[in-house]
Amino acid sequence: MAKITIYVPDQEPIKVSFDEQAEITIGRAPDNDLVVDHESMSGHHAKLQQEGDGYILVDLDSTNGSKIDGISTGSGPLSNGTQITFGKVDAVYECEEVVEEVSEEESFGGDGESFVSDMQVDIAETSVKAAGFSNLSPLEKAVEKDQFGKVAMVAGVIAILAALVTFGAAASMKVG
User: Fold this and answer.
1) Rounded to two decimals, what is the model's pTM?
2) Residue 2 in contact with residue 94, Cβ under 8 Å?
3) How many DSSP H helices and E strands does the chain contain?
4) 112: phi > 0 → left, psi -120 to 50 → alpha, else beta; which?
5) For the residues of 34-76, what is the DSSP string, one character each?
6) End-to-end Cα separation, the chain, in angstroms
7) Side-chain half-sphere exposure of 13, counting CA atoms within 13 A
8) Would you report the helix, strand and coil content of the chain in percent, each value rounded to 5?
9) What confidence tier does 169 reach under pLDDT thresholds 50, 70, 90?
10) Which residues of 94-129 are buried (b: 16+ CB within 10 A; e: fewer)?
11) Sign (positive or negative) of CA dihedral 34, 132, 83, 94
């Protein structure tokens, strides 16, 4: 079953389940399947369109655009956990993933040897923080100081060392 949770700023999340619907329209206009009242939404902003076992997002030439996992797009496939942004309204698409059962013979080639795949993967160029994500580290994020701060610190250390040398030289002259 597919569902979407829409997070309109300053409102309670809108959770909608849809199953077997060929198309779900989203926008501010009252004739949409999902009416989202937010200034960044167009009257007819986007639609979720069934394609095969899943859905794709199709932006309907909205003024503020749509994003899938942080990337502006005209359309694209949706999978479980996909982050969608309609203008300035965030949403999360969820669906039950269909998992094919694979026998041990198929996964290991039948002879117990490990399976080698010809599948290619690419490392993502960008990532998007999941909605509700929070950093649990007790350490603060390290922030690189500006160059002026570094120069000022080095100058301060040199000044202190020069003062100590001068004070040491003056003290040794008084003793003698």
Assistant:
1) 0.55
2) yes
3) 2, 11
4) left
5) EE---TTS-TT-EEEEEETTEEEEEE-S-SS-EEETTEEESEE
6) 93
7) 13
8) 20, 30, 50
9) confident
10) bbeeeeeeeeeeeeeeeeeeeeeeeeeeeeeeeeee
11) negative
Measured between alpha carbons, how far is 158 from 156 in angstroms, rounded to an integer? Answer: 5
Phi first, then psi, for residue 74 (nearest 5°) are -85, -35
Rg from Cα positions in the chain: 29
Whether residue 79 contacts residue 99, with contact meaning beta carbons closer than 8 Å, is answered with: no
What six digits make up the tokens of 140? Answer: 């603060």
Residues 77 and 71: their CA atoms lie apart, in Å, by 12
112 token code pair: 């117990």
Residue 149 has pLDDT above 90, yes or no: no
For residue 147, which amino acid is it? Q
pLDDT tens, position by position, 65-116: 999 999 988 899 999 999 999 999 999 999 876 555 555 555 555 555 555 5
Q: Whose CA is closest to 65, among 36, 86, 39, 80? A: 86
| pLDDT tens-digit readout, 123-137 | 666 666 666 666 666
Locate 82 and state its tokens: 């996909």
Residue 168: what are its φ and ψ, rounded to 5°?
A: -65, -40
